[in-house]
Amino acid sequence: MKKLFGLMAMLLFAMTFVSCGDDEPETKIKGIYSVLPGNKTNYSTTTDHYFKFDVLSDNGRYLEVHNEQYSGGKSFTMRINLSNCSRYVINSSYSFEGKNLEITPDYYYGGSWVPNDNDGIVTNVVIKFDTSKKTYELSYEHGGVATSASGELYIGK
Q: Taking the domains of the chain in order of start, what are their residue ranges?
């Protein structure tokens, strides 16, 4: 009986250390971005063209297009609302499709987002990204100009 009690005590002691390992809270994702040229991650000061995928939030799902170029060389920042796009989620892979939608984009003016369809609506939106593989593919048309891009993701935590 003493041997059985001793064995149980050792098992309880061993199980105590095993059960404490995974109590760390999961780190919240603060942003998902396309990787900048040269693998830079300072998105607040860049003038490079990049995308922000704000699609995991329940407050709204958006694709932000930063430093896009007008035909005249002037750059702008645009936000495409993905709320009405079809959404598919498989493990860490996300897909948004808005092929039959006409979306009025928001532009960033004076510190806030403002709806603007003067420069054309956004159509044929297709976005696919995988947070575990850290890759993305996207395409859309804006003002009659087709844009497509693919590459690596930077996931800010």
A: 27-156
Token pair, residue 149, equals 């891009």
**What pTM was estimated for this model as a whole?**
0.77
Residues 12-25: pLDDT tens digits? 555 444 444 444 44
Residues 48-72: tens digit of each pLDDT: 999 999 988 767 899 999 998 776 6
| Cα 6 to the center of its chain, rounded Å | 53
The span from the CA of 89 to the CA of 129, in Å, is 10
CB 76 within 8 A of CB 109: no
Residue 64, SS3 per DSSP: strand
The amino acid that residue 19 corresponds to is S
Name the burial class of residue 73, with classes exposed (0-12), middle (13-18) and buried (19+) by CB atoms within 10 angstroms of its CB: exposed
Residue closest to 79 by CA, chosen among 63, 95, 97: 63
Contacts of 20 (CB under 8 A, 6+ apart): none
Tokens 């003016």 -> residue:
109
